[in-house]
């Protein structure tokens, strides 16, 4: 099972920037799509962004498109989320999550997030 | 994309069964057979309990079962136990590398 360890959260002022990281264990980390999910205080889960195993395909929720950028570094088994123009509404615990679909088998035949990071709190406030 | 619709809360006594519905649209539940369910305890990361509508990961009790019909997916917890008290979320694939979550349901064991 892949273990995911997140870092990079904290307090930032409105309009500021922050970068989240998520390090995955295991040699096959790059064979799986990775997703960022966030949860505002007292609220439900919200899909934020997904990046394919190769890094060639990225998708974003409407609420963050144009402000957030997801990327990954295969050599470091690390997933990133660069967050710019942060707003109070972006305040949340951010989770990285691994897709259970092994991308070497196509087309997709399964979906869901079978490993999660511990969560990283981002607070946007002046 | 809009969140999938779940009841805010359900409750049951120990040993009873409870069912949580998850209502989507043609773009998500109506187009994909990739519904997953997550259990989340306070202060913890979500845990996958059902994937691909009705498949259980290793270690998840068979008291948890899933189904789907049309634009509605369901999670049933049979033989309810105190330990099942948590928040539950459905999720669906809604495009290539696009997901949508449900609004979440709080399960209370009476």
Summarize the structure.
The complex is a heterodimer of chains A (126) and B (110). Chain A is mainly β and 126 residues long. Chain A has strands spanning 4-7, 10-12, 18-24, 32-39, 45-51, 58-60, 68-73, 78-83, 92-102, 113-116, 120-124.
Strand content of chain B: over 45%
Q: How big is the Rg of chain A?
A: 14 Å
Number of helices of chain A: 0
Mean pLDDT of chain A: 95
Structure description:
The complex is a heterodimer of chains A (126) and B (110). Chain A has 126 residues and is mainly beta. Helices cover 0% and strands 51% of the residues of chain A. Chain A contains no helices and 11 strands. Chain A has strands at residues 4-7, 10-12, 18-24, 32-39, 45-51, 58-60, 68-73, 78-83, 92-102, 113-116, 120-124. In chain A, the strands form 2 sheets. In chain A, strands 2, 4, 5, 6, 9, 10 and 11 form a 7-stranded mixed β-sheet that branches. Chain A has a 4-stranded antiparallel β-sheet with strand order 1-3-8-7, with no helix packed on it. Chain A is globular and about 45 Å long. The mean pLDDT of chain A is 95. With 110 residues, chain B is an all-beta fold. Chain B is 0% helix and 46% strand. Chain B has no helices and 9 strands. In chain B, strands 1, 3, 4, 7, 8 and 9 form a 6-stranded mixed β-sheet that branches. Chain B starts with 8 loop residues before the first strand and ends with a strand. The chains are: A mainly beta (126), B mainly beta (110). At the A-B interface, strand 4, strand 5, strand 9 and strand 10 of A face strand 3, strand 7 and strand 8 of B.
Name a few traits of the molecule.
heterodimer; A: 126 residues; mainly beta; seven-stranded mixed beta sheet; four-stranded antiparallel beta sheet; 0% helix; globular; B: 110 residues; six-stranded mixed beta sheet; three-stranded antiparallel beta sheet; 9 strands
Topology:
The complex is a heterodimer of chains A (126) and B (110).
Chain A: E1 4-7, E2 10-12, E3 18-24, E4 32-39, E5 45-51, E6 58-60, E7 68-73, E8 78-83, E9 92-102, E10 113-116, E11 120-124
Chain B: E1 9-12, E2 18-23, E3 35-40, E4 47-50, E5 64-69, E6 72-77, E7 86-95, E8 98-101, E9 105-109
Parallel strand pairs in B: 1-9
Antiparallel strand pairs in B: 2-6, 3-4, 3-7, 5-6, 7-8, 7-9
């Amino acid at each position: 099972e892949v273990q995911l360890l997140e870092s990079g959260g904290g307090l930032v002022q409105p309009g500021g920037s922050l970068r989240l990281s998520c390090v995955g264990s295991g040699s096959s980390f790059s064979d799986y799509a990775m997703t960022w999910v966030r949860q505002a205080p007292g609220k439900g889960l919200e899909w934020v962004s997904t990046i394919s195993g190769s890094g060639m395909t990225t998708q974003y929720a409407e609420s963050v498109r144009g402000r957030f950028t997801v990327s990954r570094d295969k050599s470091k088994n690390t997933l990133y989320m660069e967050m710019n123009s942060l707003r109070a509404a972006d305040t949340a615990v951010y989770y990285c999550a691994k897709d259970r679909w092994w991308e070497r088998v196509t087309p997709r035949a399964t979906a869901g997030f079978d490993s999660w990071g511990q969560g990283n709190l981002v607070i946007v406030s002046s | 994309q809009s969140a999938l619709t779940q009841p805010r809360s359900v409750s049951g006594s120990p040993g009873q069964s409870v069912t949580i519905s998850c209502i989507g649209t043609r773009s998500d539940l109506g187009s994909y057979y990739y519904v997953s369910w997550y259990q989340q305890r306070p202060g913890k990361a979500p845990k996958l309990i059902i994937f691909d509508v009705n498949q259980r990961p290793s270690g998840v009790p068979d008291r948890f079962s899933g189904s789907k019909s049309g634009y509605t997916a369901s999670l049933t917890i049979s033989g309810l136990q105190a330990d099942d008290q948590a928040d539950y979320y459905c999720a669906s694939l809604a495009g290539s590398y696009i997901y949508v979550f449900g609004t979440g349901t709080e399960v209370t064991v009476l």
